[in-house]
Automatic annotation (TrEMBL):
It comes from Kineothrix alysoides. One of its GO terms (molecular function) is pyridoxal phosphate binding. Catalyzes the removal of elemental sulfur and selenium atoms from L-cysteine, L-cystine, L-selenocysteine, and L-selenocystine to produce L-alanine. This is Cysteine desulfurase. The keyword Cell inner membrane does not apply.
Length: 409
């Protein structure tokens, strides 16, 4: 695999762990940042530092232009032709909470049902759990098989006339399974339900078109797609967004305020109270440019080859159990696994001594862990800057874990 993208990521070129080159395999948690994104953030602070939408002077107008161009770029990036359907947030977590509180509180009534999967990240579970309790609604789950694959038949069985919201992750942050969103959206809409898609793990890795997926809401985070932390996006269909009350109240979202009344601005600006994260938007725009420059075909081919090679090598280790689909075509570049007789935290610590960074824990998906019959797992996740050499270093280190702990090979 000819992968020249590692050179664009300064930390990967300079950072060492225990005197060894860093092999970063935790991109499902957060991604490394290319130099172009770092420069874009620096460029904002050097050239555009001002509060957008507020000042009648050139610097503020320049900051406004940068911010709103980033909104347009984010819209185009996900196949949305109306930038006014894009709300900037702090990330996926805030975006989903915004939908649950600003839309869900008005739309869900006692006895209604909210449907999610058992594999959801806590960010796409806890807001619905709270909403169901507040509204005396029913929170239902789809579970899937032992490999985490959810059949369309189970979705068909669970979605009904009482379903008001279907909330699901596009790609599982643990098992890497990919949900058939278009088909699920059709089922949900037949029953009058809206679809909330957690795109935190999909938007950075596959080409997204919200119109083709036919979702009503899409949430994703910049920091998982090469952009800085603290910037995210909520896409919402215009009619739904217009109907939503602001989650946060404060400056920058009003047309007029009286002692006892307020008139809010139109969406999306009414949803963005306070001083916006302009530098985050600048970094997000630069990350979008970078991903588009690399190209989705290249990103797909890199991650496909990494996943297939890593799965093949992991399956060759007798003391390692891999969770999720055994077929690479059914999953993204996320691998959850455990080493026999070794706690995941010990695995991660030992791998770190070889310069390999993975994640260990419940991955903010405790119901899924219980469903799998484990308390936690190890997780390796890939991105476009990883190489086959990274996989080899990872597998070679993993093969030594039991020996280091005195279990033998």
């Amino acid at each position: 695999m000819d992968n020249n993208y590692r050179k664009d990521f300064p930390l990967l070129l300079t950072r060492e762990e225990k005197g060894r080159r860093l092999v970063y395999l935790d991109s499902a948690a957060t991604s490394q940042k290319p130099l172009s994104v770092i420069k874009a953030i620096e460029g904002y602070y050097r050239n555009y530092t001002a509060n957008p939408h507020r000042g009648a002077y050139t610097l503020s107008e320049d900051a406004t232009g940068l911010y709103e161009k980033a909104r347009e770029k984010a819209a185009h990036f996900i196949g949305c032709n109306n930038p006014q359907e894009i709300v900037f947030t702090a990330g996926t977590t805030e975006a989903i909470n915004m939908v649950a509180l600003s839309y869900g509180r008005a739309a869900v009534k006692e006895g209604d049902e909210i449907l999610i999967t058992v594999a959801e990240h806590h960010s796409n579970l806890l807001p619905w759990q709270r909403l169901a309790k507040e509204k005396k609604a029913v929170l239902r789950y789809v579970y899937g098989d032992e490999q985490g694959q959810i059949s369309l038949g189970e979705w068909e069985e669970k979605i009904n006339s009482r379903t008001k919201i279907v909330a699901l992750g596009h790609i599982s942050n643990v098992l890497g399974g990919i949900n058939p969103v278009e088909e699920i959206s059709r089922m949900a809409h037949r029953h009058g339900a809206v679809v909330v898609l957690d795109g935190a793990q999909s938007v950075p890795h596959i080409k997204i078109n919200v119109k083709e997926l036919d979702v009503d809401f899409l949430a994703f985070s910049g920091h998982k797609m090469l952009a800085p932390a603290g910037i995210g996006v909520l896409y919402a269909r215009k009619g739904l967004l217009d109907s939503m009350e602001p989650l946060m109240l404060g400056g920058g979202i009003v047309e007029e305020v009286g002692e006892q009344s307020v008139v809010f601005m139109d969406a999306p600006w009414k949803m963005e109270a306070g001083t916006p994260n302009v530098e985050g938007a600048a970094g997000l725009a630069a990350a979008i440019d970078y991903l588009n420059q690399v190209g989705w075909t290249n990103i797909h081919n890199i991650e496909k080859q990494l996943l297939e090679y890593a799965l093949e090598r992991l399956n060759g280790l007798n003391e390692v159990e891999v969770y999720g689909s055994k077929h690479p075509e059914n999953r993204a570049g996320i691998l959850a696994f455990n080493v026999k007789d070794v706690h995941p935290h010990d695995v991660a610590s030992i791998l770190n001594s070889y310069g390999v960074a993975i994640r260990a824990g419940h991955h903010c998906a405790q119901p899924l862990m219980k469903h799998l019959g484990v308390s936690s797992t190890c997780r390796a996740s890939f991105y476009l800057y990883n190489t086959l050499e990274d996989v080899d270093i990872f597998i070679d280190a993993l093969s030594k874990v039991r020996e280091v702990l005195g279990y033998g090979t």
